[in-house]
């Protein structure tokens, strides 16, 4: 393994504890002002309307609806954003109605919260929209049971829904004038990442490109799946994404020949990115090609230039697999009821919410609904380690309550509170992109100020909030984390085996130029690798006694990525003059990878692969041999006795 990967592994094991650095999503390269401004406007406008009407409290529920809906916005196509934000807003309104109707009924209220927890956990298995809906359903149910408002619950739920619609309108304000802005921006980001790849083909640049490409496919295809009939422009965008993948593979092939890409091709890709962003069309290419890798690179770049310049799109350039609603619902149903992780999470969440609800009935805490609220937020499964979130939530709330106390001491009750409310609301999207603790540090004073508008509790609210939050974190750690050893680490082993199987399936069809589905299989392989990296990143945020075992998977992950890259590069060469491999040699590769996947699932040491000796597949065979050695612990950089195939419990 190269020194680059050894240094990366060292940084992971020797850096600060994961529970201090766990990110909710990848940190942005620069501060993005648009979502911050949109959040501030969404939260404060209902309060300003209430202030103009003479009762600022009237704007509280619409403000909360706008905040909950805006926090669910994860970008992407307009269709995807509508589904996600609408799910969160509707579920939040239903949750508040449920909580308000069951408030004040003693232990029946606790049972109602537990029942909602079950529904929330099942919804959370249904992808992004289900996850957002499940969280808001549970959170607003808890708030509905804890915050009494004068009047019937129905109009209050409608006020919350009105705020959600306001946030949705702000997010979609550019849609009429720029209906494809999100898809175009995603494709531009892919070509910018590809431009950087010409100068740096290290693992960091490759991962950045693969991440951008996956986001591009998700964004464009989610919009395209809703289009009625053929949409030529979106089809062109998908073709451009396919072309960028071909260029990436050709670059890897050229790197394996120890050659640098020509400067005019790098400039052409940069011109393609500029043209997609509204600049002039790129210049035509003229370049001599003296090797299969260089011919593949030139062909890929030329194809992108022609697509941007209005060239024809081949029918096989669009790997799109429509999925019917019945198939989606059936897959969702099976995932909800038959997934082991879903069942375990449902039990954990229901148990902790039940205990938090019981604590509230004993009257030990002044505003005990905050205890249940903390449990709901910390046990949300999508954002990584439960341990990290609990610790970060406590630390972030401590910092946030101190800030909130200062604000409540210095800012008089009334309209002046809208200024710090707007500031903290604007900072929440930034905190969410950084880490759970920073988001909590901005959320805590915002919630304090909103509650103070309703109750006029003053600085004492900060102390109450801190105590209740710490109690919720303790419940999560004692009942939702420590008794469940399987939750201490993400399932890296099974995901690794899935990625190996996906790679084998891709190789089975990769060298058949007449196979229309091989582009889709290649994308699925890199999707599986991206999922593996996500699970790995979640696992390394656990306490060091757990995470140091997880980090030993990194050499095997790197070896598997080398297999995928070597395959893609070899395919690029065979399409541009290199001799294709024999079916027997390809079959031996596939069998070896499937055996490695089966051995990892069974906890066995993988056997030595039997590979055909063909010059075309030399680099792929070498990568598969390196993968087997790394997984079995025989590779010199594989981490010693904690090798993946030794049955040491790392699965």
TrEMBL record:
The chain crosses the membrane at residues 39-61, 82-101, 107-125, 157-175, 336-357, 369-390, 402-430, 436-454, 466-484. Its main location: membrane. It is found in: Cell membrane. Keywords: Cell membrane, Membrane, Transmembrane, Transmembrane helix. It comes from the Bacteria. Residues 638-651 have a biased composition (Gly residues). InterPro entries: Memb_transporter_dom. Pfam families: FUSC_2. It is a multi-pass membrane protein. This is Integral membrane bound transporter domain-containing protein. It comes from Streptosporangium minutum. The lineage of its organism: Bacteria, Bacillati, Actinomycetota, Actinomycetes, Streptosporangiales.
